[in-house]
Amino acid sequence: MELKAADASAASASEAIRDYVSLLKPRVMSLVVFTGFVGLYLAPGELNPGLAAVAVLCIAIGAGASGAINMWYDRDIDAVMSRTCGRPIPMGKVGADEALAFGVILSGMSVMVMGLATNWVAAALLAATIGFYVFIYTMWLKRRTPQNIVIGGASGALPPVIGWAAVTGDVTALPLVMFLIIFMWTPPHFWALSLYRSGDYEAAGVPMLPVVSGRRETQKQILLYTLVLVPITLLPALFETVGLLTYGLPAAVFGAVFTISAWRVFRDASEKNCRRLFGYSILYLFVIFTLLIIDRAAGA
């Protein structure tokens, strides 16, 4: 009997841990952590491997903390959207106050540890990232303007800048280009999702572009942003910061595929085409930043 009770208690504790981990939006966090690591890896100079790991962990925790606070604030609309209704707060698995406290504590810890482990420039950038996502995007923009994703994307674009600053204590051209790549990538990425999830956003009263301006305008904006994004990804090669063979040509090829995918959505915003663009956009960003790592490794 006692053994069964112990097993039940262990299972309950394990489930509670999973619920709190899900508050951190681990799938979103994975890209954030990866781009932050790339910024750190590309930065000139050296950082103790242990401190480098701490810096990446702080970026991960800061991103996750932002997600937890976002879930606390958006718990009302999450409950009516099919994509988000299974999150811990709408399901009653984690209380709203507990989620908020969890997010706030992790936010403060990540910034403080980043400052102590690396430098306060990186810590300030991490704090700005968290603050921008929580206050500017979540609390101000998301429910008020169809430009929520465009402006709010700045928070998701800062991790490589933070990683770079953790090593150097400053910000130069290459991390700013990495910022621009993610910033311009975010709208077509999320608008592809919003096209086939527009009913969700409309039901929740979130003014995503397809809800406010219609599907056709969204299709056009996806293509326009893509046409600006792809040349930006080639800037490091044009400035000879990276190699043509190790980065420039592969980036151009993957960019061409992205453009074709955006063109297909422009021509026909079927769920199939939108899902393909959304999925490919994730792969595309991963590939672009992986190419930067390969180029640096090849030139080391």
UniProtKB/TrEMBL annotation:
An example Gene Ontology CC term for this record: plasma membrane
Catalytic activity, as annotated: heme b + (2E,6E)-farnesyl diphosphate + H2O = Fe(II)-heme o + diphosphate
Gene3D superfamilies listed in its UniProt record: UbiA prenyltransferase
GO molecular function, a single term: protoheme IX farnesyltransferase activity
Cellular localization per UniProt: Cell membrane
Biochemical pathway: Porphyrin-containing compound metabolism; heme O biosynthesis; heme O from protoheme: step 1/1
Keywords: Cell membrane, Heme biosynthesis, Membrane, Transferase, Transmembrane, Transmembrane helix
Entry membrane topology: Multi-pass membrane protein
EC number, as in UniProt: 2.5.1.141
Coiled-coil residues: none
TM segment ranges: 28-44, 50-73, 94-114, 120-141, 148-167, 173-193, 222-239, 245-265, 277-294
Enzyme class name: transferase
Record GO biological process: heme O biosynthetic process
Domain of life from the UniProt record: Bacteria
Additional observations: Carbon 2 of the heme B porphyrin ring is defined according to the Fischer nomenclature.
Family: Belongs to the UbiA prenyltransferase family. Protoheme IX farnesyltransferase subfamily.
Function text: Converts heme B (protoheme IX) to heme O by substitution of the vinyl group on carbon 2 of heme B porphyrin ring with a hydroxyethyl farnesyl side group.
Annotated protein name in UniProt: Protoheme IX farnesyltransferase
Organism encoding this protein: Nisaea acidiphila
Gene behind this protein: ctaB
